[in-house]
Amino acid sequence: MSQLPGGPGLSLVVPLFNEEARVAESGGALVDFVSQLGPGSELLFVDDGSTDRTTEVVEALVTRFPDVVRLLRRPHRGKGAAVRAGLAEAQADYGRPVRRRLKRRLRSSREEPSGAGAR
Asked: Residue 25, by phi and psi: left (phi above 0), alpha (psi -120 to 50) or beta?
């Protein structure tokens, strides 16, 4: 992994296959989360040969947040291959695949009223 400017960071790798609706729903929460991690962190979506509009939705995020979001396109080879490809392309010092559970948590935290759950 080559280091992004700004010091050590985290690359969150999100494997996708025909997940247009899921990216449209939770992509913003993932961008917000990674943006708070600081310089050197990135959100790397790996499209595994989607046949829907998944790549178009991600490309809109790349356009809006070019310093945080990247897209890697691959032919369909399965989730494991997509994760491995994403980790190999990650530019931060640390890489981690995103699991659906985290995506659900981030989405639900955006739906909480302001101040809910604050400690």
From this structure: alpha
Q: What is the pLDDT of residues 82-108, one digit of tens each?
A: 999 999 999 998 999 987 665 555 556
> Residue for token digits 């302001």?
114
pLDDT digits (tens, 9 = 90+) for 57-80: 999 999 999 999 999 999 999 999
- Single out the residue of 103, 14, 13, 17 nearest to residue 52, CA to CA: 17
The CATH number that domain 10-107 falls under is 3.90.550.10
Q: Any idea where the domains of the chain sit in the sequence?
A: 10-107
Give CA–CA dist 119/33, Å, rounded.
Answer: 18
For residues 66 and 19, give the distance between their C-alpha atoms in angstroms, rounded to a whole number. 21
**Please, where are the H alpha helices in 37-98?**
54-64, 79-89
